[in-house]
C-alpha cells in the first residue's frame, strides 16, 4: 500500500513540473505521430469507413459476421490459439529470463544471443524450417518413432502450428521479461528472507509481483501479434483450422469483399483492445505496475 | 491461375521493381501471371518472339491478385496491361474491372467458339488430373475418381488444388455418380457432403507450388493436380501415376484491366499469343494444352504420360463451365470457406 502512495506521490511531483517540459515532448512526438497518422490511422479509418458504407450504409457487414456461423468460430479459435501460444511462451520464457538475470556477464551475453539469433532470422526461413521438421518423414516424426511413438505428423495440425508460433514468438516474451526482471532490486528478496520468509514465499510475495509488468507486457505483445499471425498458420496449418488472418485473406483476394474483410478486421481490433484493457485491469492492483506505468 | 499466392514480400518487391522500371517509354506492356517457372515459360514462348516481331517491350509482374487489380482500377492507377487469369474471373469482372476486348485486332476464330467471352480469350487449357503414389498402393491401385473419395478402401493423405473453381467439386459429384453432361449447375451441398468424407485426410493446398513439393517429398499419397505441376513433380522423380477416369479441364483467359495504359498494344499481344508457334512452344515448355486443337505440340515422354488430350486419354476429359463459375464463384467460395473453416 505504502509503495503505491509513494508511486502516486512521484506522479504528483512529475505533474507539478509540467509547466516547461510538455512543449518539448510534443515536438519530439511529432514525426512519429505524423507517420502513424498517415500510415496507420488514416488507412484504418478508411477500412472501417468502407465496412459501414459499402455496399450500403449500415452494419450489414457486421451482422453477417455474427450470423454466418463461421466467423465467430474462427474468431474464438484465433483467440484460443493466441492465448495458448502466449501462455506456453510465458512458461518457457520466465525461467529463461530469470536465468539471464542470474548468470555472469558472459553467460548473459550467450543467453541473449541465443534468443536474438532466431529473432534475426527471417520469419519465412524459420517457418520453412518448421515445415521440414514437422512434415511426414521429418525429424520430429522419426525422433518420436525412435521412442516408440508412431505416426506423429505435426504438419497440418493445430499442435504443429502452435509449436512453431511459440518458437517464433519467444523473443517477444523473453526480452520484456528480462528487462522487467533486471530492474528488480534483489535486496528486497534478501530483506524478505532475513525477516523469516522461505525462499519460495519471498519469490511468490516479492519477486513475482515485481516481475508482473514484464509479464504483462510480454504476454500482451505475444498475444496480440499472434492474433494477426498469417504466415505460420498458412504454411504449417490447414484451412480446416483457419485463423482470422486467413479468412480475411480469402475475403480480400478471392471474393474482393473489401468491406466484409474490413468489418472482420475491425472486430478483431475491438476484441484485441478489449483484451488489452482486461489484461491491464487484472495487472493493475500491483504497486509495481503502477510504478512502471508512472515511470513510463 | 486464379488467386495463386506468393509471399507478399515478393509481390512488394516486384511492385517496387515495376514502379522503378516505369519510365518514359510507354510502348512497354506489363504482363501479369503466376510467377515462377510458369511465367518464365511465357516469357520465352510469347514475349520474346512478340518483342522481336513488333518492337514492343514486355515487362513482367506477378502474382495475379484480383484484389490488387480491383484496388488499381478503383484508384485509377492501373499499371497492368495483360493478365493471365481464370476464365471465370474474366467473365465475373468483365466491364467492372476489365476492358472489353477489341475483336478487330483479336481474331475470334482462333479459339473454340464456346471459350470466347467479351473480356477474355483463352490462353491455354489445363487439366486437373487424379494422380496416386505408385509405391503406396502396390498391385491394387485406384482406378476411378470415386476411389479418391473413398478413404476406407484407399487410405492415405490427399491433396487438392488451392482454387475451388478448378475441379474439386466437379470430381466429388462425378465420384458420387453424377453424369458428366449434367454437372452444371453444380449441386454444391451434395459435392461438399462427398468431400466431407475425406476432409480429415486432405490437405487443401495454399499454392500449386506446394502441391508439386508435397508430391516430390512424399507428403501425399493422392492428389488432384494440374498438369504443369504434375510434370514438374514427375520430372523431379516423384513416383506418381495418373488415373484416366475423369479429368476436369479448364482454361485461363488473357484479359486487359480497365484503364490499362497500353490497351492497343495489349490487344496485339493477346492476338499474337493465339498463333500456332507461340501456343505450341508454350504448351511444350509448361505442359499445358493449346486452345487451338489444330496446334500439335511436340510433348516429351513425361508430358505424353499426363496429356489428357491424347487419343487414349481423351475419353476422360470433362470441360469446366467458366460461365457458371463466373455467376456463382462468390457464393460457392463463401459456402466452401465456411465449410472448410467451420
TrEMBL record, chain B:
<dbReference type="Pfam" id="PF13416">
    <property type="entry name" value="SBP_bac_8"/>
</dbReference>
<dbReference type="GO" id="GO:0030976">
    <property type="term" value="F:thiamine pyrophosphate binding"/>
</dbReference>
<feature type="signal peptide">
    <location>
        <begin position="1"/>
        <end position="20"/>
    </location>
</feature>
<keyword id="KW-0574">Periplasm</keyword>
<dbReference type="GO" id="GO:0015888">
    <property type="term" value="P:thiamine transport"/>
</dbReference>
<protein>
    <submittedName>
        <fullName>Putative spermidine/putrescine transport system substrate-binding protein</fullName>
    </submittedName>
</protein>
<dbReference type="InterPro" id="IPR006059">
    <property type="entry name" value="SBP"/>
</dbReference>
<dbReference type="GO" id="GO:0030975">
    <property type="term" value="F:thiamine binding"/>
</dbReference>
<dbReference type="GO" id="GO:0030288">
    <property type="term" value="C:outer membrane-bounded periplasmic space"/>
</dbReference>
<keyword id="KW-0732">Signal</keyword>
<keyword id="KW-0813">Transport</keyword>
Amino acid at each position: 500500500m505504502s509503495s503505491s502512495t509513494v508511486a502516486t506521490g512521484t506522479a504528483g511531483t512529475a505533474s507539478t513540473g509540467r509547466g516547461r517540459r510538455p512543449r518539448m515532448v510534443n515536438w519530439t512526438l511529432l514525426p512519429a505521430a505524423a507517420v502513424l497518422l498517415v500510415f496507420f490511422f488514416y488507412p484504418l479509418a478508411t477500412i472501417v469507413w468502407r465496412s459501414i458504407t459499402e455496399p450500403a450504409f449500415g452494419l450489414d457487414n457486421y451482422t453477417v459476421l455474427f450470423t454466418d456461423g463461421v466467423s465467430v468460430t474462427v474468431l474464438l479459435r484465433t483467440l484460443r490459439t493466441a492465448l495458448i501460444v502466449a501462455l506456453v511462451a510465458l512458461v518457457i520464457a520466465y525461467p529463461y529470463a530469470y536465468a539471464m538475470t542470474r548468470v555472469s556477464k558472459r553467460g548473459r551475453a550467450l543467453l541473449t544471443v541465443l534468443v536474438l539469433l532466431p529473432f534475426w532470422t527471417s520469419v519465412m526461413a524459420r517457418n520453412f524450417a518448421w515445415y521440414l521438421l514437422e512434415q511426414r518423414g521429418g525429424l520430429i516424426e522419426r525422433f518420436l518413432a525412435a521412442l516408440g511413438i508412431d505416426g506423429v505428423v505435426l504438419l497440418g495440425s493445430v499442435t504443429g502450428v502452435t509449436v512453431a508460433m511459440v518458437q517464433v514468438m519467444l523473443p517477444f516474451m523473453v526480452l520484456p521479461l528480462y528487462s522487467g526482471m533486471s530492474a528488480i532490486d534483489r535486496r528486497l528478496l534478501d530483506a524478505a528472507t532475513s525477516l523469516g520468509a522461505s525462499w519460495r514465499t519471498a519469490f511468490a510475495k516479492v519477486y513475482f509481483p515485481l516481475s508482473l509488468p514484464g509479464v504483462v507486457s510480454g504476454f500482451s505483445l505475444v498475444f496480440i501479434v499472434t492474433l494477426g499471425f498469417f504466415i505460420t498458420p498458412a504454411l504449417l496449418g490447414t484451412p480446416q483450422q483457419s485463423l482470422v488472418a486467413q479468412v480475411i485473406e480469402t475475403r480480400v483476394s478471392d471474393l474482393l469483399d473489401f468491406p466484409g474483410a474490413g468489418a472482420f478486421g475491425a472486430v478483431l481490433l475491438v476484441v484485441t483492445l478489449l483484451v488489452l484493457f482486461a489484461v491491464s485491469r487484472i495487472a493493475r492492483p500491483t504497486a509495481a505496475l503502477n510504478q512502471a506505468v508512472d515511470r513510463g | 491461375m486464379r488467386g495463386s499466392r506468393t509471399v507478399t514480400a515478393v509481390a512488394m518487391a516486384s511492385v517496387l521493381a515495376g514502379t522503378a522500371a516505369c519510365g518514359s517509354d510507354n510502348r512497354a506492356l506489363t504482363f501479369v501471371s503466376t510467377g515462377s517457372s510458369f511465367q518464365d515459360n511465357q516469357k520465352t514462348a510469347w514475349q520474346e518472339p512478340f518483342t522481336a516481331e513488333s518492337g514492343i517491350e514486355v515487362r513482367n509482374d506477378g502474382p495475379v491478385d484480383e484484389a490488387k487489380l480491383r484496388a488499381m482500377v478503383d484508384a485509377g492507377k492501373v499499371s497492368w496491361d495483360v493478365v493471365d487469369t481464370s476464365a471465370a474471373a474474366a467473365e465475373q469482372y468483365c466491364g467492372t474491372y476489365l476492358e472489353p476486348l477489341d475483336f478487330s485486332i483479336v481474331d475470334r476464330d482462333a479459339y473454340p467458339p464456346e471459350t470466347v467471352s467479351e473480356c477474355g480469350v483463352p490462353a491455354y487449357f489445363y487439366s486437373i488430373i487424379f494422380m496416386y503414389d505408385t509405391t503406396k498402393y502396390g498391385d491394387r491401385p485406384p482406378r476411378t475418381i470415386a476411389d479418391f473419395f473413398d478413404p476406407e478402401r484407399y487410405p492415405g493423405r490427399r491433396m487438392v488444388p488451392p482454387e475451388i473453381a478448378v475441379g474439386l467439386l466437379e470430381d466429388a459429384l462425378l465420384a458420387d455418380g453424377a453424369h458428366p453432361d449434367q454437372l452444371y449447375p453444380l449441386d454444391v451441398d451434395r459435392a461438399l457432403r462427398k468431400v466431407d468424407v475425406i476432409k480429415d485426410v486432405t490437405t487443401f493446398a495454399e499454392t500449386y507450388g506446394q502441391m508439386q513439393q508435397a508430391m516430390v517429398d512424399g507428403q501425399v499419397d493422392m492428389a488432384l493436380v494440374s498438369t504443369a505441376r504434375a510434370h514438374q513433380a514427375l520430372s523431379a522423380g516423384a513416383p506418381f501415376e495418373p488415373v484416366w477416369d475423369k479429368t476436369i479441364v479448364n482454361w485461363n483467359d488473357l484479359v486487359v484491366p480497365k484503364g490499362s495504359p497500353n490497351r492497343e498494344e495489349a490487344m496485339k499481344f493477346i492476338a499474337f499469343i493465339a498463333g500456332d508457334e507461340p501456343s505450341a512452344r508454350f504448351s511444350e515448355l509448361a505442359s499445358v494444352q493449346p486452345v487451338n486443337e489444330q496446334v500439335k505440340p511436340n510433348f516429351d515422354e513425361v508430358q505424353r504420360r499426363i496429356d489428357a488430350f491424347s487419343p487414349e486419354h481423351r475419353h476422360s476429359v470433362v470441360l469446366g463451365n467458366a460461365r457458371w463459375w463466373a455467376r456463382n464463384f462468390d457464393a460457392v467460395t463463401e459456402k466452401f470457406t465456411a465449410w472448410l473453416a467451420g
